[in-house]
Amino acid sequence: MSATGVAWQRAVAMSSDAVAEARKGRLKQRYDNEFRLVAGCVPYRVNKKDDEEVVGSPCSSSLGDDTGTAEVEVLMISTPNRADMVFPKGGWEDDEDVYQAASRETLEEAGVKGVIHA
What we know:
single chain; 1 helix; NUDIX_hydrolase-like_dom_sf; NUDIX_hydrolase_dom; hydrolase; hydrolase activity
């Protein structure tokens, strides 16, 4: 899986053509030898704060710049099979490139969409 990030927005009110249908099964998934290939990303967003003190937390980092302060938030998800938090990822299918697969999996698993930066 390549390291990618995505600036995210909640996918609450989207047009019907923008909604990716969740895929089921593994018939179309890519394999390398006997290993299933997966695609995913690290969803993040930058919140700029002007004239506010940014309080750090385990899931955010403060950035200083000339226009004020910004806070980076990283999105992780829980999964029923693990006790820890993970980044959204899933099977890379043979009819899509790695960026399409990462976008689809992030929307399916975390409910967010955004722009992928490689």
